[in-house]
User: Fold this.
Amino acid sequence: MTNILKKISALFAGFVLIISGAFNSVETVEAKEGSKKALIVYFSHTGNTKLIAEKAQKELAAANWQVDLQHIEPQKAYPEYGDELRDLAKEEANDDNCRPEFKKISVDAQSYDVIFVGTPVWWYKAPKIVLSFLEKQDFSGKEVRFFITHGGGPGTCVSDMKTACKGANFGENIDVYGNYPGNGEIDYDKVAPWIKKINENQ
Assistant:
């Protein structure tokens, strides 16, 4: 009976060691994951900027980043793509005091290593709803990168957003050509090397 008990005890001890090793292995994997944190926050009305945001998210995740993706949404929906939207966008662009309200987003910029901000270009400027969001955040000492989509040039979009990101540090940005509405003419090739360079510098 004693020998049987000894064998059972030995088997149980071995089982504990196996289980313990399995848990340690999981902890090691978890420790490696999410070693760097990124926030991607974007405004996209026709879908082009959303596609670039999702591409950036995939590239960062593949490089072992923990990534949060947030969408800036207006409280009052913009008109569909067309003359009405173009007229409203032009009116906002020409009004320096315009700051449309956006739906609440729970964001703490200070908890991320890099904040990526994406937007289309409206009348060669940053949409005012993007400035509404940026001006309410604390970017002190944080690294902020921009990605913008356009059909005719970046204009002052990046400089508009830099002015709104008080206290931030800025690096290389990308602008991506893409026709409405995400019809296959988007230059995705810029995203992967951009993310790779940022990852190497962290």
About this structure: Residues 2-32 form the longest helix (31 residues). The beta strands are 36-42, 65-71, 114-120, 143-150, 169-170, 174-177. The chain is about 40% helix and 15% strand. The longest strand covers residues 143-150.
